[in-house]
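Hi all, posting the design record for the shared folder.

TITLE: backbone redesign
STEP: 1 of 1
STRUCTURE INPUT:
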């Protein structure tokens, strides 16, 4: 695990662990609620001034990788040694062994592995017009060795209102029913399962601001469901986007086929290269 000489990361990890532990039973009940994709959230995770400092440290979109196509539009930062060190501190605070242990107790996953390579994780930024279409996250880590079973999404934009967009949408009953929205509220941590049915999306940002998120993904030797499975990140169209849905289903089928032949795909994966 990464350490530094300032003690900042230790402070973040300790506070996160204590906050989660104090709310552990309530979060566990929220996570295992019936008739929904397993998920829970907790507010006021860190001291407000610390979160503002984290938000202020986010790079400009021009310093990040732009992902813009029919599937998604967002900016991601994975090579975090290029950015303010505070971003590395908060990302790896969620990988502290005590934090991971408590998340395991909340979710019921017996043995969890955080990802020091931040495969598809790190920091992300959305500005006006950005979105994520409904999708299933990739099923494995970068080496296809472990199953991706949990997403931890920490929102850090001060005063971000639900009406601004950029909110997490969870499609508990599939795309034929209305989704459940979790506001990407300042200082809120969301924990959600990721498996072969956990469709989720992010609503389009309609406000001229920047919605910033710190993302960590946890992995396991066992799948989140009983049977084994494999898939790449697979996007769908929204219910009203019939043509886009057909295109994206074809795109997902093609990329799944390629990955079954080429274990690491034909494009360079996005992960932190130390």
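Okay, here is what came back for every position:
SEQUENCE:
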């Amino acid at each position: 695990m990464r350490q530094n000489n300032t003690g900042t990361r230790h402070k973040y990890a300790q506070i996160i662990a204590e906050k989660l532990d104090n709310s552990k039973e309530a979060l566990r009940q929220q996570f295992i609620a019936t008739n929904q994709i397993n998920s829970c959230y907790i507010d006021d995770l860190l001291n407000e001034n610390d979160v503002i400092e984290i938000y202020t440290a986010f790079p400009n979109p021009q310093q990040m990788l732009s992902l813009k196509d029919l599937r998604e539009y967002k900016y991601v930062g994975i090579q975090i040694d290029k950015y303010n060190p505070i971003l590395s501190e908060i990302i790896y605070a969620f990988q502290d062994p005590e934090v991971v242990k408590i998340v395991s107790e909340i979710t019921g996953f017996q043995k969890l592995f955080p990802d020091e390579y931040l495969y598809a994780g790190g920091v992300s930024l959305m500005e006006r017009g950005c979105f994520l279409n409904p999708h299933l996250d990739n099923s494995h880590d970068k080496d296809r060795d472990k199953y991706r079973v949990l997403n931890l999404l920490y929102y850090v934009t001060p005063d971000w209102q639900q009406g601004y967009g950029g909110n997490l949408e969870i499609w508990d009953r599939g795309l034929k029913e209305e989704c459940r929205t979790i506001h990407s509220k300042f200082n809120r941590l969301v924990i959600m399962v990721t498996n072969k049915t956990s469709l989720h999306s992010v609503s389009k940002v309609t406000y001229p601001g920047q919605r910033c998120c710190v993302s960590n993904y946890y992995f396991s030797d066992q799948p989140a469901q009983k049977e084994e499975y494999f898939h790449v990140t697979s996007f769908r169209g929204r219910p009203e986007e019939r043509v886009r849905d057909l295109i994206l289903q074809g795109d997902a089928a093609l990329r799944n086929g390629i990955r079954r032949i080429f274990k690491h795909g034909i494009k360079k994966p996005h992960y932190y290269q130390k």
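COMMENT: The chain has one domain: 8-261.
Let me know if anyone wants the other runs.
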